[in-house]
Amino acid sequence: MTQPNTTQPEIVINGRFLMQPVTGVQRVARELTSALDRLVAEDGLAVTLRLVCEPGAPVADLGLRATTVEYAASRWGGHVWEQLVLPGRVREGHLLCLGNTAPFASLHASRGVTVMIHDLSYRQFPGAYRLHYRMGHRIMLPSLLRRAKTILTVSEREKAMLAALRPEARGRIRVAQNGGWSCALAKADTPLPEDPAQEPGYMLFVGSLSRRKNIHGVIAVAVRLAREDGLRTLIVGGGSDILAPITGEIPADVAHLVRFTGPVTELDALGRLYRDAGCLLFPSFYEASPLPPIEAMHFGCPVVVSAIPAMTERCGTAAIYCDPHDVDDMVAAVRRVLADPVQLAAKGRLHAAHWTWRDQAARVLEAVLGQTGASLNEIARRSDPAGEGRKADGWMSAEADQQTPCPRSTEGTVSSRMAQLSTSERERA
After folding, report:
1. pTM assigned to the model
2. Confidence check: pLDDT of 380 > 60
3. What angle do CA 196, 197, 203 make, to 5 degrees?
């Protein structure tokens, strides 16, 4: 087994997410693990990465080059593996947990733990989740807020909510907004065979079939637009053992126009669905840093989202907003977009380029290593030292967006090492 390099800090990534069904949390964890690996491999950062996971965990598609993968065998899996087996494999490293949970033993040890708390949806919408899930997270959250060395979350809105629960933790909470479409894990421009059963121009929803996601509102809009406009709708997503079951059927007269696909986790197939959609409807009641709106924008798919704080923080002026409680308002917003999609699609492409997994990974490294002098703007400049492709406010130029399917900042090279920041730089921060 490869021994860690004790001359530089080691980050141990909790690989429990690799054995879970892929929803938003697991997508973020996979993207971040790959992005952290690329930062270290391509830019020579003085950091050692080690991914600890269960035997059989799928890691090949992560494309890891600088990360040591360590399989920790046990008769247990899942939550029990995380609590009983993982702590013994951390050794002298700093444990990075990307999926809302962490081992109690590690939290109570002297070594550092950083945990990413994506959202508090089980507190805001308890009816959307099963009892065992709500209870488990309610038991764990106080320990995370009290004992984690650093707490990561994905929006300013979530940071405010976490700080309200435990004000003394505010100074340990860092925001690292999610990236967008992954150009590293998906070949977005690779031609794919067309699906003859699904012609372009449909309304698309991507997300779990959950009350929090307003799935009943999505269905109501789909049924009405099918009846009144003949519009087809594609609903991509599924339930899970943590979500409360939902009820509802599509009326027989429009069943041929409203199609459920189940989850689509293969990124090339998902990219094709975004590309061919007439618009994305994402009227969720509660989000932290949602992926589908930004992913849709990447492919030039106009977006209609709910007018909630985290969505405006994420989507800015690149989306049309609607009242998720008002079916009439949602229908009107979709019709408005479909009547004139070109300008919104162009604005969305530019906006999507603003969100990269590389930037999020850089923020995570700052938080874990305490390199507060390496601000996101500084890292972005290192990623694109000539200033090409980004305006002063962090947006890509239209020319760069047209020429490059993925923003340059995800492919650039960090010219200086974060671990070599001078003391004066840190003090200035």
Report:
1. 0.80
2. no
3. 115
